[in-house]
């Protein structure tokens, strides 16, 4: 996997869609640890391990806190976060007898806890009991993990500057001033963030392109600020990542020059500031700085400044990330829709795509579990809607294209992914596989629920519909219409083609090769469909399918809420002991 620094986009691999990478900080504390020392209390240290290819690998470890059974560790663990993966973590607490040997037989094991990165970010704060070997409780010991996203590019800022009474550097006219802003990096090097523009006098060489940080709005015409010692520069926009690396206290150097068409610009003065100081200009307030020429300050006894630069206005435009919404309490509601048309074959026949092999799950179950295991970490009640289509169902054995596979028309939800699996297996003997393959009714059914959620005008629930089908849909026109309607709602659709049918016509729904349109020509508001044939992942690990079909979901969530201008909800108050669970 290609990695990227904060604010950069990872390079897409040819095998998979673009993954959304975030970094998450984890803070750890414990309570009521076992006391293994005779004379003193335990000296705890935490090891963080992550599962990779079935093996637990140490990621990092905390400091050792002397003689403390309720430690709050200063160490901050940083992990990469991928929505489309189940990232298993294990926290192990030891009573240390020397940092070099933490985790060895010389240390006393105080307990461990396993969870996923997804569980932690979805709940923001996870408190669980610690367990010793063989699933035995470590007394009343608990461990708490709190998560926070490291935001790589959380918005942009709009700035409006002017200057007053700048020094005149021209002999026969007034100065033609422009302003440069530099970010001072950790290695003390300077990175040009933005340069205002001056329209050159006739016959001179054109001014180069504006700044090294492209504005987020369409480029404005060059500013005309010449022969003016009190210029007002056009407002401009830069990303917070570019301006200050999203660090409010990072030092900035601002330089004012008198433009020269030959490139030999005359230095007028400079000043230093921070984004934290700039923010005082929000609202009706203004911030100003003396524009200083260090040489004049040394040479001239009564030197005050070479003019004043004023920040007239500052507007922050926040751009929220997927984790902002998840950590704000947005729930992912997962619905699965299963194709029960006759083309699947008689479930009693081993050649059927619905055949229940006691030793190996069929393709429907493999796809269901792979995707469902990811989504379940983001749904607090762990209840999932499970629907079927294309079958004759009891009691009248009429064809239905949106029935609950638990046969409860008032509540189609199942308890966890295992509940969906059990309902699927138990419904097979009770139904008659039939047809046709109509999926528009189920898309519309989930869309109605999503529409009710939209009316709350809150980022509280987003819907993922997983459709598992063995053939090209019959109601293509109605399906296109339903998808266009759904693209305006908090909803994404994943379609997995099961079996060896020719799914070429299904690619049109994906929208990757062009914009999907309704039969009347109306385009989708946003691309919400991801289609993949399961056979491409038949010999891959179960997680490969989930990575492929879920990689675009974070982007789709952000696109929807950004379009609606719904900010993340405020997280609910932490309830430290609400997440206690039994041994894993």
Q: Please state the second-level CATH architecture of the largest domain.
A: 3-Layer(aba) Sandwich
Number of helices: 12
In total, how many beta strands?
A: 26
Terminal-residue CA separation = 29 Å
**CATH structural fold name of the largest domain:** Rossmann fold
Give the low-pLDDT segments. Answer: 1-20, 199-224, 572-584
Protein name: CPNE7 protein
Domain C2: 2-130, 137-290
Domain VWFA: 333-532
InterPro entries: C2_dom, C2_domain_sf, C2B_Copine, Copine, Copine_C, VWF_A, vWFA_dom_sf
Would you kindly provide a brief summary of this structure?
The chain is of the alpha+beta class and 584 residues long. Helices cover 18% and strands 32% of the residues.
Can you describe this structure?
With about 575 residues, the protein is an alpha+beta fold. The chain folds into 3 domains: about 25-150, Immunoglobulin-like (Sandwich), CATH 2.60.40.150; about 155-195 and about 225-315, Immunoglobulin-like; about 330-380 and about 435-565, Rossmann fold, CATH 3.40.50. Helices cover about 20% and strands about 30% of the residues. The protein has 12 helices and 26 strands. β13 and β14 form a beta hairpin. The protein is flat and about 100 Å long.
């Amino acid at each position: 996997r290609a990695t990227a620094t904060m604010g950069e986009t990872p390079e897409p691999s040819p095998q998979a869609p673009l993954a959304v990478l975030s970094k998450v900080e984890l803070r750890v504390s414990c309570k009521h640890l076992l006391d293994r020392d005779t004379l003193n209390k335990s000296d705890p240290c935490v090891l963080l391990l992550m599962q990779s290819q079935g093996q637990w690998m140490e990621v990092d470890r905390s400091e050792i806190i002397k003689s403390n059974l309720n430690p709050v560790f200063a160490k901050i663990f940083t992990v990469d976060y991928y929505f489309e993966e189940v990232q298993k973590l294990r926290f192990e607490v030891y009573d240390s007898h020397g940092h070099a040997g933490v985790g060895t037989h010389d240390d006393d094991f105080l307990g461990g806890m396993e969870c996923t990165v997804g569980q932690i970010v979805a709940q923001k704060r996870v408190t669980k009991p610690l367990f010793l070997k063989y699933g035995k409780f470590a007394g009343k010991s608990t461990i708490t993990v709190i998560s926070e996203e490291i935001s790589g590019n959380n918005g942009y800022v709009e700035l409006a500057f002017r200057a007053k009474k700048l020094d005149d550097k021209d002999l026969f006219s007034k100065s033609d001033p422009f302003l440069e802003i530099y970010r001072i990096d950790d290695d003390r090097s300077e990175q040009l963030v933005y340069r205002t523009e001056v329209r050159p006098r006739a016959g001179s060489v054109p001014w180069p392109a504006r700044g090294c940080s492209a504005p987020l709005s369409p480029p404005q015409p060059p500013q005309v600020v010449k022969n003016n010692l009190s210029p007002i520069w056009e407002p401009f926009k830069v990303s917070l990542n570019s301006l200050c690396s999203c660090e409010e206290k990072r030092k900035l150097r601002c330089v004012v020059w008198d433009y020269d068409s030959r490139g030999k610009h005359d230095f007028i003065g400079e000043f230093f500031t921070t984004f934290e100081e700039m923010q005082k200009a929000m609202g009706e307030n203004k911030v100003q700085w003396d524009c200083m020429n260090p040489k004049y300050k040394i040479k001239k006894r009564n030197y005050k400044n070479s003019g004043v630069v004023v920040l007239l206005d500052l507007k922050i435009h926040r751009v929220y990330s997927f984790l902002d919404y998840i950590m704000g309490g947005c729930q992912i509601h997962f619905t699965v829709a299963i194709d029960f048309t006759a083309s699947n074959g008689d479930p009693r026949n081993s050649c059927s795509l619905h055949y229940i092999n006691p030793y190996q799950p069929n393709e429907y179950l493999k796809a269901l579990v792979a995707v469902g295991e990811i989504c379940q970490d983001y749904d607090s009640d762990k209840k999932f809607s499970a629907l079927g289509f294309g079958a004759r169902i009891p009691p009248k054995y009429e064809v239905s294209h949106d029935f609950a596979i638990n046969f409860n028309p008032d509540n189609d939800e199942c308890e966890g992914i295992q509940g969906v699996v059990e309902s699927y297996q138990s419904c097979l003997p009770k139904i008659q596989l039939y047809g046709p393959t109509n999926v528009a009714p189920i898309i519309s059914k989930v869309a109605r629920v999503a529409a009710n959620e939209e009316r709350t005008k809150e980022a509280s629930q987003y819907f993922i519909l997983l459709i598992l089908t063995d053939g090209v849909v019959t109601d293509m026109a109605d399906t296109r219409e339903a998808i266009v309607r759904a693209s305006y709602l908090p909803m994404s659709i994943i379609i997995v083609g099961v079996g060896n049918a020719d799914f070429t016509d299904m690619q049109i729904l994906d929208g990757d090769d062009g914009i999907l349109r309704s039969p009347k020509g109306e385009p989708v508001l946003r691309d919400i469909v991801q289609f993949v044939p399961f056979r491409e992942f038949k010999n891959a690990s179960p997680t490969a399918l989930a990575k492929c079909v879920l990689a675009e979901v974070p982007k789709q969530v952000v696109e929807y809420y950004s379009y609606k201008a719904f900010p993340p909800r405020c997280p609910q108050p932490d309830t430290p002991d609400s997440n206690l669970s039994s041994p894993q």
